[in-house]
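Narrative summary of target 7.
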Amino acid sequence: MSQSIFARASMVALLLCAAICARAQSTNILFGPPSDWVRELAWTAATNWTRNEKSEEKRYLLYEVQDRPGTAEQFVRVITLMENEAGVQDSGSLRFGFDSSFQELHLHRVVIHRAGKAIDRLDRSKVRSIQPEPELDGHVITGEHTAVVFVEDLRVGDALEYAYTLRGANPILAGHYANLLRVQSGAPVDRQKYRVIWERATPLELRSHLVDAKPVISRQSRRVDYTWNFTNLTAIPYEDYQPPSFEPYPYLEFSDFADWSSVVNWALPLYAPGTNAVPTELRDLVARWKSSASSIEEQARLALQFVQDDLRYTGIELGPDSYRPADPMETFQRRFGDCKGKVVLLCFLLRELNIQALPALVNTYVREGIGNRLPSPFAFNHVIAKLELDGKTIWVDPTSSYQGGKLWNRYLPSYGKALVLRPGNNALEDIPRASPQSASQRKVFSTIAIKDYKKPVEFTVRTEYRGYSADGMRENVARTEPDKLAEQYLNFYARFYSSIRTNGPLRITDDRLQNLLTVEEAYLITNLWEFEKADKMYQAHFYADNLYNALTDPDTRLRKTPLRFVYPMERQQEITVHLPDKDWAIPNLEKEVEHDAFSFKYKRRFTGSTVRFHYECRTRLATLPAEQVPSYLAKLEEMEDTLDDMLERPDENPEHFLAGINWLTVILAAFGLCSAAVAAAWYWHRTGTAPAADAVPPMIPSPEDQRLTGLGGWLFLVGLGLCLNPFIRLVTIGQNWEGYFSIHVWQSVAMPQGDSYHPLYAPMLVYELLGNAGLFVLNLLVLCLFFSRRRAFPRTYIVFIISSALFLLLDEVGSAQISTLQASDAGKVDYAQASRAVIYSLVWSAYMLKSRRVRLTFVK
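Modeled conformation, tokenized:
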């Protein structure tokens, strides 16, 4: 039974669809030859064709457009060559769009040219008319119909020709004419023709953009015929992220509007105040705003917010309604409207509040580029409003929902120029760029609390959205269920930490007046520390995810056109990592990346057991010339290489610990110690034998000098320093043992493929290793000479302290030459410490040479 009902319902639907198609098919679609005024280009089909594997899917052999505004006709003829199967697929169904409320579609021919023969493929019975409404998802209804012709038996190598005429003009234009014809695009064209027949007394204005060719002009009585013929037009490749006002494609432009005042005079009657009665509900609403608002700005803000948020955006662009706004009372009662209807309603509400407001026409695509266009309604595709409030000019867009902040801090896209619909206006007005307060600002504060290396860590994130970012996030929150939004956030961070899980609900606070929206998140990460087998180290990574994709990263990198940026834009992120202990040697770092297009700053600070990473990026301009793009991309890569940090700790497993030792540096250290020990033993033995015959005999102290003998006086400090130095040196090496004996550090800094490689790293490591080994043994030797009171002590001690000072000085200078350390404290020469060491060596050297106690004590 149910199947029968379903079958009947399906049959009814099919019959209804067929009836609709048949009715549409018989309405406004006509067949026949072109009008007598059309002068088609002569064209002969080729009799042979050879496949070119490198060719495009299809090639335009001929493209011609002929306009006759006097009769509201436009003739179009296209011939394309099917180069391969993709071309056949794309051209197998032809689509012809027209507005049935004022246009007729005249189909002249659909012909396949194959091997010198012309095959007619225009079957009237198979032409279908549909109403697809491609912009319905964007809440726009155009009412445009599409005639579809399915071309049968189309093959690779065929030349497909079709020709048609559109007859009829939108009555809202009141007989005016304006058009823009593209001369070149992303597809090559062998031959192209444009023709315009002008038969009116009103002058026709012509303008060309990137077109040097002049038209062939013929005159007959009041008729002027303009014709352009082009051959071998190459394709202009598309490049992404072009500025809106940059127009790379040549075109011809026509208009019979004398100036911008003509456009204003044409539009003013359309935007005249409505005649419908004002509903009581609307009057009460205005009265409530007047009584509740504390300022005129708040009254205007309440009116704007009502139009933006309480009236949904829906554009019914049917025939004349594509230019004529609906009556404001009708828009209010329907609770929806397009940009025109919303602006007219807003202007009415503001006038009721004694606030001056006017509609302003803009173009969301070419933006300030309309300043280069001929005056015409077609130069615009959007309407906003201009307000005069407290002596300030404010531009607002009633179609922008979920906006926050006071009116003068609200974000408005950089439309550049507008035509304000004010009587007597004859010029475009500049729209200021968005203020810094309304710029896209996003600050992220991430905190990772590591209480134990083996337990899950707490990961909390607080994100502050301001300006345009807050508007967008506010809309996202309104459109997304809380659980779904939390899931989206969790999956975002799962890209970085695979074992992350939520540790609390998502908390959202919104201060709409300040336009500050805050999102707080809480997670647990169970695998923050991951074991790297190759390095035998545990690694934890931290990511400045807020700055990923913050800047323009074009697919077309070798450019001929400018590059567009979001401007003004600011992104910041601070990552705070709390470590469970202070046994870390993390140098402070700073890095800046500067370019004309943006600035980037990075800082790393380690204090106690807390590491802080700070990132900041700002755009400096909206458009970058093509010749500067290579340097920008290099700087962008330099910035992105800094957006992730890593901490490493050794494995506590003894087997893994031994596997992570750099045995090369261990052997070098052992070699240095052994070599120094052998040299010290030889020196000890040599200085302990009987003195030579010509040696200076020791000074025999007089009775009064007996009190100066012994290891007292200032020699006590010398001995104390000699006793402490070996322990200090061993502790220092122990604290930085990874730098000397970790295979991972060696691979990172001394091998060319390492992340922090520098050619001076390896020599400096070897220098410090052997230098410390030699000075350690020399310290022990001097200590033994000191307590044995050998005569060799003074000169050996002088060698020791001077060598120590020189070692320190050379180490400071050498480390400062390593570029990866130059931005940190480790990469700066500590002149104070080096100076103290030099002064120390000079003072005690002079003491050893001049002191009477030294000469009386060290006599063996």
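The first helix runs from residue 2 to 26.
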